[in-house]
Amino acid sequence: MLARELYRTNPDRVRAALADRRSDAPLDRLLEVDARWRQVLAEVEGLKAERNRGSKQIGQLFAAGRRDEADAAKARMSALGARIAELEAGAARLGEEMAELELVIPNLPHESVPVGPDETANRVERTWGEPPTFDFEPRAHWDLGPGLGILDFERAAKVAGARFAVLWGMGAALERALVTFMLDLHRGRGYEEVYVPFVVNRQALRGTGQIPKFEQDLFHLEGTDYYLVPTAEVPVTNLYAGEILEEAALPKRLCAYTPCFRAEAGSHGRDVRGLIRQHQFDKVELVHLATPERSYEELEMLTASAELVLQRLGLAYRVVTLSTGDMGFAAACTRDLEVWLPGQGCYREISSCSNCEDFQARRMELRFRPTGGGKLRLVHTLNGSGVAVGRTLIAVLENFQQVDGSVVIPEALRPYLDGVERLTPRG
RNA sequence: GGAGAGGUGCUGGAGUGGUCGAACAGGGCUGCCUGCUAAGCAGUUGUCCAGGGUAAACCUGGACCGGGGGUUCGAAUCCCCCCCUCUCCGCCA
């Protein structure tokens, strides 16, 4: 949600930002409804003030024993009450429409974000590591995995459907090792680990911005108010929703493991092979809550935390700032980490780190009390993958594959795998 | 699943249908006192929305006592529905 003051006093700036985003958000409709709402509200409040004065008088008249006058006043107030109810119903309708409109307007991009229509306008900030070279044709994980006997799409399709996977044996252990490795790494850097519900309600999804615009991407538990989490960002960021934090308690840096569930509506035909795009995948998520003054420093730290995971694993990657046309709904600034995948011969997203500034905080009423006193302020929320576990497993398989189809386990993971150094093809 | 208790401000905790935005206590803040700290004394201290004013302060009005309806001239207070927490019983990992 944007600040009302912003779109009221500076609609042109908002309009320009929406254009940069290639957004067709109904700003003009919002401005119109807002104006009418304020007009009706002023009228309603004036009448209510009159009624409040009248009611108080009635009480006094009764106390003074002037019953006749009181009864007459009651009749007048009753008529007034009917008018108020009528006008108020109108104001409520306008207020609801306004709230709905506000919820579908995306965040404004930060001034540092490159302006452009899509991912071609993204800006590469830096690269780390050298993509490995092979003296053979590197294979994709969807060949390597089944060859190692650790990855099984057929049986997943049998028990669930397309876009699911079964990990066998060392594959399952590797997945779990990656999760633990990542959580340990972040915990060691001052993050507090949290374990959160894997289902969330509509209110939480509204808080982080998945609802109402992206409801079709979610798995809904029929007959309930519950949805499977599409990312730990939702339960973790909403932990303090509606609360007032002390400034001294900021920044908060949290990490959480959850599976993530996405309906992937509208992505038919994209990344149909392999583990890249699944209905269910594991992720370790990082969430920072910070003061506005610090939030961009926190974005750097958050990104660095995600990068460290890849560095420790020895995976080459690059950091990209998303352009205005490629950013997510709630973000003001997003840096993606893209890991090199030899099987695909390209960099693929493995982490997305965003500063949402006060956009989510306004939706979930997450505020802090400044240390020196003064008015409550909105917290800035940040989130990022630290990192996507399934895609990391892909990266490990593809980057450390050997000519014989075996895969060398990165040293950082060996303590989590009983010292195993290499996965070898089965029989 | 069954029975009961309860949800009030930053916290604890009162509250008779009408000067209740809410007693009291704690905490915070500001003064005073004090060699320092603690204690003590006095005062002060909610949020959101609209309008006015504006550098800010502030002023006027409205709303808010878990959420939503209802009764009433008027609801924290009465009625209905829902949610959540706690206790006991049952069940279960």
Give the key terms.
427 residues; alpha+beta; BirA Bifunctional Protein, domain 2; eight-stranded mixed beta sheet; RNA-binding
How many domains make up the coordinates?
Answer: 2
Shape: elongated
Low-pLDDT residue spans: none
Largest sheet: 8 strands, mixed
SSE series: HHHHEHEHEHEEHEHEEEHEEEHEEEHEE
| CATH architecture classification of the largest domain | 2-Layer Sandwich
CATH classification, class level of the largest domain: Alpha Beta
Q: Taking all residues together, what is the mean pLDDT?
A: 92
Radius of gyration: 27 Å
Percent in strands: 15-25%
Structural category is alpha+beta
The CATH topology annotation of the largest domain reads as BirA Bifunctional Protein, domain 2
Distance between the termini: 57 Å
Number of helices: 12
Question: How helix-rich are the residues, as a percent range?
Answer: 40-55%
Please give the order of strands in the largest beta sheet: 1-10-11-12-15-9-8-4
What do we call the CATH homologous superfamily of the largest domain? Bira Bifunctional Protein, Domain 2
Oligomer: single chain
Description:
By secondary structure, the chain is of the alpha+beta class. The protein folds into 2 domains: about 5-105, Serine-tRNA synthetase, tRNA binding domain (Helix Hairpins, Orthogonal Bundle), CATH 1.10.287; about 120-425, BirA Bifunctional Protein, domain 2 (2-Layer Sandwich). About 40% of the residues lie in helices and about 20% in strands. It is built from 12 helices and 17 strands. It has helices at about 5-10, 10-20, 25-65, 65-105, 140-150, 155-160, 170-190, 200-210, 235, 295-315, 360-365, 390-400, and strands at about 125-130, 150, 165, 190-195, 200, 225-230, 245, 250-260, 280-290, 315-320, 335-340, 345-355, 365-370, 375-380, 380-390, 405-410, 420-425. Strands 1-10-11-12-15-9-8-4 form an 8-stranded mixed sheet. A hairpin with a 4-residue loop joins strand 11 (about 335-340) and strand 12 (about 345-355). The protein is elongated, with a radius of gyration of 27 Å. The termini are far apart. The mean pLDDT is about 90. The structure holds one RNA strand of 93 nucleotides.
